[in-house]
Amino acid sequence: MAKTELVGADARIQEAQSSYKQALDELETKTELQRRNASTVAQREIEKLANIVEGRQAAISAVMASKQSVESQISSVLPAQKKSAEAALAQAQVELDKTVVYAGVAGTLEQFTLRKGDIVNPFMRPAGVLIPAEAGRKALIGGFSQLEAQVMKVGMVAEATCISMPLTIIPMVVTEVQDLIATGQVRASDQLIDAQQVVRPGTITVFLEPLFAGGFDGVPPGSSCIANAYTNNHDRLAEEDLGTAHWLFLHVIDTVGLVHAIILRFQALLLPVQTLVFSGGH
After folding, report:
1. 3-state helix/strand/coil string of the chain
2. Distance, CA of 147 to CA of 204 (rounded, Å)
3. How far apart are CA 117 and CA 280, in angstroms?
4. Between the chain's N and C termini, which has fewer beta carbons within 10 Å?
5. Are 2-84 and 136-278 equal in CATH topology?
6. What residues of the chain score a pLDDT lower than 70?
7. What does residue 39 show for φ and ψ, rounded to 5 degrees?
């Protein structure tokens, strides 16, 4: 638009200059004729032409000023307006981006029960629960007795059966053993803590992963499971200098593990019956 006005100003300048030149030529011609013969051209006509020339020259000045005004808009006013508009656009984009909430991880939003007009606050009124896509699909978290703290090691073979997939034994392997017990933590507060307030002893948190790929297929994340971890005494039993008492003790441990494995299979068989028949659930 401003460039169009600039082109129009140039055209008006050219037109005003042409009119000025025409009036000036006519004034000079009349003046020369009067100088040669005073009776040929009246003095009043000379004065009239002089006024026309001055008017045409003023018109040129006005058109030149209009052109300078357009050039000033192009060089300073319009760039400033453009920057102001770009800043307003950026601010509007920021405000628009605030209306969309992006999760830090990929997953599924559950229990999203918001209604129009509800106030969302991450501390007092969350919009829902974000379940990461891989949550609970790679590892099983189990709590084992503190008596097993000295024997629970990474790499131990384990087995698990879950209520959500009955009649199935899932081979597992221990991948991580947490070296802290949750119930023993002390949080800073304004009250002294009595150790006897902890009624139940805590458990050792152990992470177990399926021994084979696809071991958790069909098990929904968050399922309740029963797991056994087994020690391996095969190499120690093969030692030649192993005493009889020690050899018998290791065999007892392996026998206990075998019994626990059998019990786990019985539990896998009885879980559906216990849940559907004896508890009255269905």
Report:
1. CHHHHHHHHHHHHHHHHHHHHHHHHHHHHHHHHHHHCCCCCCHHHHHHHHHHHHHHHHHHHHHHHHHHHHHHHHHHHHHHHHHHHHHHHHHHHHHHHCCCCCCCCCEEEECCCCCCCCCCECCCECCCEEEECCCCCCCEEEEECHHHCCCCCCCCEEEEEECCEEEEEEEEEEEEEEEEEHHHCCCCCCCCCCHHHCCCCCCEEEEEEECCCCCCCCCCCCCCEEEEEECCCHHHHCCCCCCHHHHHHHHHHHHHHHHHHHHHHHHHHHHHHHHHHHCCCC
2. 9
3. 42
4. C
5. no
6. 1-3, 5-10, 33-34, 38-42, 70-71, 73-74, 195, 197-199, 278-282
7. -80, -10
Determine whether domain 136-278 maps to CATH 2.40.30.170: yes
- Residue 131: both structure tokens together: 């379940």
User: What is the tens place of the pLDDT at every residue in 89-123?
Assistant: 999 999 998 888 777 888 887 877 778 877 777 77
pLDDT at 38: 63
Boundaries of every domain in the chain = 2-84, 136-278
Note the pLDDT of residue 174: 94
Give dist(CA 114, CA 125) in Å, integer: 10
Residue 120 near residue 126, CB atoms below 8 Å: yes
Nearest 5 degrees, angle CA 26-CA 30-CA 36?
Answer: 150
Please give the class, per CATH, of domain 2-84: mainly alpha
pLDDT, position 206: 93
Model's pTM, two decimal places? 0.57
| Residue located via tokens 């097993």 | 148
Predicted pLDDT of residue 233: 79
